[in-house]
Each structure stands twice: as structure tokens, then as C-alpha cells.
């Protein structure tokens, strides 16, 4: 069997053989050798480099997710043009580099991405049901229909039959791991058909989930998560009319905050790849290049015990092409293996992206710049009852919310804020009183920060804290950080903030419900950061911004080593690099060269705990 020589500038027919044995390109059997990467996780300036890296490893196709919530951040307001949101440009680049495309537009994608790509504003409806048909929840499907209607005119000209590189469109993603609802999957397929896109379509599931829930669509091919040759053979026996492929073959794995090390480092796919190549079975490496979950978009999981597991910022994934786009030893090994089965030599490996001369620049030394407490917006109007509500209820997706109320100065007791999603620092008066983490913390960090894992928090006496008269009031402040929303499994509707009533157990054993909260929204978005007021009234109260400047003669990729800091966020020249957290394993944040300038560069750090600035060394790798 030979590989068809194709011209991606003209129309092509991609189809399935009548017996379901093969994918067909212009009527000839075609092996899909796909590597997954996500435009949202890669600076636009590096898109072409990453695509070329995939081709040089022997791929003929790129699989990509479209993250709905990255393009419709506010209901009805779409952005498919700015920065790395221009999906059409990415797909046209694939065509120009002679690469086909498997399009995975969701609406749900998982991807270790906040809420699996679903927009957080959906959760403003307290009873909404996600990932279901319009008969069950018309509000959800109306939003999905609007999203697909926005995609259709962008995607249709890029289908292979019109001269574009898109071979197939995936319907939803791993739906068998969530539910069984054929009506929902068919409704999604019909939305594409209504727009004039006839497919071909395919679905993606683990074999066990596929067999249990029969999550296929009419005439659609089947892709298998963690698929292998034996599983493909099983699917061909059970679903003989359509072809099957290994839709997610894992060369690495995802990593959560607090884990002992980066996952997937020792994975070796050589045996699986050899089998695919020998049998000419189609496959997709998830991921060939992971990139970075910049800003607040890293997702989370919940384990079998119900423990919340937020994902780190890096999506390096121990993939063959690392976070910076470099060829790893895995890459070189897999490239040689794949090349040995191909009739033509592979393209040369693209030149590596230059890194910054870290030794020449030296460590950054930030200084105190501002305080969150001096940058509080006006409180929202109090709602009836005054109980705290979720971020989504207030129309905020990411960042922080401050919940504040006033207690009698002599009050003391145990505060129950077990409904925190996801991380809270608590202050009585101007003093840090401790905090609560939804995620379990390694003991050494929990002790040093006086942090609890969803446990009641003992408050010190406000009188001891303030030393004022017994008739005065003292502020109780709970600053809540939203970390990643759960992106997989039944706990998908993961709202943020204080989700349960806050109570206090007093020294006499009585319990009171704390109401009448003032709520201050702190989204930490571009507008908020651009309008920070410099200055700090109380530099000993945690919740501080620090700033550093670095003068560069030349730019290059680099990492900011946050090992000396505790927990927070870093911006450079206004670009949000993502979260850091000293529980690791990630201690360094990737900064791509296009976000730096020759001359002066400004680094802004917000740390939830530190009141003293520490050095920030630069590095040339993730670890």
C-alpha cells in the first residue's frame, strides 16, 4: 500500500471504504498519522514551527481542539481573530505545510482545560444541565447551537472537499465517560448538517465506555482513547460498517499541583508505534506538543475519593515536542521509527527556538508595587439574605472574589467555610488568620501557611487582634481564588467561590449563620491589571503585587523560576503566564520570546501569602 501524493490546494474526497476497513482519500486507503496540539496553548508566532515539528516527526495530520470558552468568554461575544484565537489561520497554516487536520470542536473537549472548554457563564443558571439534548435542557443546547452557527461559516471552506485540510469533525468528546444520550449526539450532528457540513464525522471514547454506552453517531468513524491495535480490532468486529483508529495515544500524561513529579516522563510508545506502522493503522498522538495553559485556563480533576486535583500551568505533558517546542529524546526515537516505514525521507527537523541568555540577564529582584486591599472595587449591592454566592452567580469566570462582613470585636470561635472552591485566605481585622484549600496540601506546606484542607478554621479573638473597645466591629475577610474547573467526569458543573453557608461555632458551643456579606469582584483580567493603583497602605497584610523590570538587548524564550515564592500569578508586559504554587512539582513559568521586547520589560507578581520580595532567577527549561 502506498501513500497517496496529494495537493491540498484542490478539493479532495475523504471517506470510508464500504466494508469499514479503511479511511479513504480520493478513493485510496489512507493512514492517518496525527499529532495533537492546541492553538490556544501556543503563541501564534510559534504555530508554524510546531506544525513543522509534527511533520518532521512523520505526521501527516494535526488534531486540534477548539476551546469554546476561549472564543466566547462572554455570552454572545465571539473572538476568532485576536492573537492565537484565529482558528482559521491555524488551519490554513496546516494546509500550507501539507498537513491534514482532524477537527475537535466540542462543544465539550476535556483537554485539561477549564470546564472542559464549556463557558463558565453557563453555570450562572443554578439548575442548568450540561452536555445534554434540547428536550432535557434547551438553555444549554441553544448556547451550543449559537456556537456551532458561529463555527460553520469558518469551517466549511476549510473542509477537504472545498480544498481545505479538514478530513473529519469530531462530535463531542468522550461522551461515554459522562452519560448515554444518543439524542444529544445526533442533535449535535444535525447542527453541522444544517450548516451544510456533511462530515465525515467521528466520535472519541474509551473502549469500555463505547461498549457500555454505544456513544457513536450515524455513519461516524470511531476513535479510541488510549487505543491500541487490539482495541481497534475489537471495534471493527462490533461496529463493522465504519473504520476505527487510535484517537488518543498518550506519549505522556497530565500533572496536578502537589504531585511528586511530572507525569509521563518514562512513557515509551515505541512498541505501539511500530504496531501501528506495520499494520498501517491510523492514530493520533495526544499530545505531540502540549504547550502551556496560560492565564486561568488550566483545568482540574476529581479523583475517586472526591479529592479536588487542579492541573499545573504547564501542559508539557512529557510530550515528544516539549513545552518550548524542542525535540526531546522521545521525538528523535519516534521520528526514526516512523521514518523506517515510510517510502520517502522526512523533512529536516526545524531549528530550535532560541532561549534567553539567562546568565547574562541575572535574577530579577521585584519590589513592592501595590496591594489588593488598596484596589478593591465597590462592593456589589447586597442581595436579600446576604449569603455569599458563587463567582458565576455574579457573572465572573476567573480570578478572585473578596467576601467581607463585620463581626463584634469580642467575637471568636471556629469558622466553617468547607464550601470553598478553591483556595481561601482569611483575615480578621488586618491580620492573616489562616486559610482553607479545597485541594489537599502536602503537610509541610499546610503547616507553614496555617492552611486547612476543608476543615474548620479557628479564629483568634478579635479583641486580641485589634485591642479596641468591646463596642467596635472588626472585619472578617475571605479572599477566594478560583482555580481550574473540573474538566472530566460527572462533577463537571464546578462553580467557584463560597458555595455553602458560612457558620461560626462560638466558645459556648452555639453556632451562628454569618450573613450580610459585602462582595468585591477581582477578576484579575487585563483591564483590572492595567488599572492597578500603585501604593500600599499596609505592607504587612498579604495580598500584594510586586514589580520588577528587566532590560534586554536580545529576546528569547525563558522560564521564570518562582521557587522563592508561595502562590500566585505572574504577568510579563501584560501577558498572564499563569499560576505558580510552591507545592510543585512545577516551579517555573514559561515565557515565550514574542511576549518580550528589546529594551525594558515589566514583570508583575501577585502573591497570596508573601509580604517580602524574593529573587526570581531565569532558566532555560521547565525543570
UniProtKB/TrEMBL annotation:
Record's keyword terms, sorted: Glycosidase, Hydrolase
Pfam families xref list: BetaGal_ABD_1, BetaGal_gal-bd, Glyco_hydro_35
Annotated ranges, domain Beta-galactosidase galactose-binding: 544-601
Enzyme's top EC category: hydrolase
Superkingdom per UniProt: Bacteria
EC code(s) of this entry: 3.2.1.23
Catalysis performed (reactions): Hydrolysis of terminal non-reducing beta-D-galactose residues in beta-D-galactosides
The species this protein was found in: Paraburkholderia youngii
Organismal lineage: Bacteria, Pseudomonadati, Pseudomonadota, Betaproteobacteria, Burkholderiales
Location of the Glycoside hydrolase 35 catalytic domain: 23-340
Protein name: Beta-galactosidase
Domain Beta-galactosidase 1-like first all-beta: 388-506
Family: Belongs to the glycosyl hydrolase 35 family.
PANTHER family linked to this entry: BETA-GALACTOSIDASE RELATED (PTHR23421)
Amino acid at each position: 500500500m502506498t501513500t497517496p501524493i496529494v495537493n491540498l490546494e484542490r478539493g479532495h474526497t475523504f471517506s470510508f471504504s464500504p466494508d469499514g476497513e479503511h479511511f479513504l482519500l480520493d478513493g485510496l486507503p489512507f493512514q492517518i498519522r496525527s499529532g495533537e496540539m492546541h492553538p490556544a496553548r501556543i503563541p501564534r508566532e510559534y504555530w508554524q514551527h510546531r506544525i513543522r515539528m509534527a511533520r518532521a516527526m512523520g505526521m501527516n495530520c494535526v488534531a486540534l481542539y477548539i476551546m469554546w470558552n476561549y472564543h466566547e468568554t462572554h455570552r454572545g461575544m465571539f473572538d476568532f481573530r485576536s492573537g492565537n484565537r484565529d482558528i482559521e489561520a491555524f488551519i490554513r497554516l496546516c494546509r500550507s505545510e501539507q498537513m491534514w487536520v482532524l477537527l475537535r470542536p466540542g462543544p465539550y473537549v476535556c483537554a485539561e482545560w477549564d470546564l472542559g472548554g464549556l463557558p463558565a457563564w453557563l453555570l450562572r443558571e443554578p439548575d442548568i444541565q450540561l452536555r445534554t439534548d434540547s428536550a432535557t435542557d434547551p438553555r444549554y443546547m441553544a448556547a451550543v447551537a449559537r456556537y456551532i452557527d458561529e463555527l460553520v461559516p469558518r469551517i466549511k471552506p476549510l473542509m477537504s472537499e472545498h480544498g481545505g485540510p479538514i478530513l473529519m469533525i469530531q462530535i463531542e468528546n468522550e461522551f461515554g465517560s459522562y452519560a448515554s444520550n444518543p439524542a444529544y449526539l445526533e442533535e449535535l450532528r444535525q447542527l453541522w448538517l444544517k450548516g451544510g457540513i456533511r462530515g465525515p464525522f467521528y466520535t472519541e471514547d474509551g473502549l469500555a465506555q463505547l461498549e457500555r454506552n454505544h456513544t457513536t453517531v450515524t455513519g461516524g468513524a470511531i476513535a479510541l482513547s488510549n487505543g491500541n491495535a487490539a482495541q481497534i480490532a475489537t471495534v471493527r468486529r462490533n461496529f463493522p460498517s465504519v473504520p476505527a483508529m487510535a484517537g488518543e495515544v498518550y506519549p505522556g500524561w497530565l500533572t496536578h499541583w502537589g504531585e511528586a513529579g511530572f507525569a509521563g516522563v518514562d512513557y515509551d510508545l515505541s512498541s505501539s508505534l511500530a504496531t501501528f506502522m506495520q499494520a498501517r493503522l491510523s492514530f493520533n498522538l495526544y499530545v505531540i506538543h502540549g504547550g502551556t495553559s496560560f492565564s486561568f485556563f488550566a483545568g482540574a480533576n476529581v479523583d475517586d475519593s472526591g479529592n479536588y486535583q487542579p492541573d499545573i500551568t504547564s501542559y508539557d505533558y512529557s510530550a515528544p515536542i516539549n513545552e518550548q517546542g524542542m525535540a526531546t529524546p522521545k521525538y528523535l526515537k519516534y521520528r526514526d521509527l516512523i521514518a523506517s516505514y515510510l517510502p520517502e525521507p522526512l523533512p529536516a527537523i526545524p531549528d530550535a527556538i532560541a532561549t534567553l541568555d539567562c546568565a547574562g540577564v541575572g535574577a530579577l529582584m521585584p519590589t513592592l508595587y501595590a496591594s489588593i486591599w488598596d484596589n478593591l472595587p465597590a462592593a456589589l449591592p447586597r442581595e436579600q439574605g446576604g449569603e455569599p454566592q458563587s463567582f458565576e452567580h455574579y457573572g465572573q469566570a476567573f480570578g478572585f472574589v473578596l467576601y467581607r462582613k463585620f463581626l463584634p470585636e469580642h467575637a471568636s470561635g471556629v469558622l466553617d467555610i468547607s464550601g470553598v472552591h478553591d483556595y481561601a485566605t482569611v483575615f480578621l481585622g488586618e491580620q492573616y488568620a489562616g486559610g482553607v484549600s479545597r485541594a489537599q496540601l502536602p503537610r509541610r506546606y499546610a503547616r507553614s501557611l496555617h492552611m486547612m484542607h476543608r476543615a474548620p478554621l479557628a479564629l483568634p479573638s478579635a479583641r486580641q487582634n485589634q485591642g479596641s473597645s468591646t463596642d467596635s466591629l472588626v472585619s472578617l475577610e475571605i479572599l477566594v481564588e478560583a482555580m481550574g474547573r473540573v474538566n472530566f467526569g460527572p462533577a463537571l458543573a464546578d462553580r467557584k467561590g463560597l458555595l455553602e453557608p458560612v457558620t461560626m461555632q462560638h466558645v459556648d458551643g452555639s453556632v451562628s449563620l454569618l450573613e450580610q456579606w459585602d462582595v468585591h469582584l477581582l477578576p484579575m483580567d487585563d483591564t483590572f491589571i492595567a488599572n492597578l493603583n500603585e501604593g500600599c497602605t499596609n505592607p504587612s497584610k498579604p495580598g500584594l503585587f510586586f514589580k520588577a523590570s528587566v532590560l534586554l538587548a536580545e529576546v528569547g524564550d525563558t522560564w521564570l523560576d518562582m521557587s522563592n515564592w508561595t502562590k500566585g500569578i505572574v504577568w510579563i508586559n501584560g501577558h498572564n503566564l499563569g499560576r505558580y504554587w510552591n507545592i510543585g512539582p512545577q516551579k517555573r513559568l514559561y515565557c515565550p520570546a514574542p511576549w518580550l521586547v528589546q529594551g525594558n520589560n515589566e514583570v508583575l507578581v501577585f502573591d497570596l501569602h508573601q509580604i517580602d520580595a524574593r529573587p526570581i532567577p531565569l532558566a532555560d527549561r521547565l525543570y
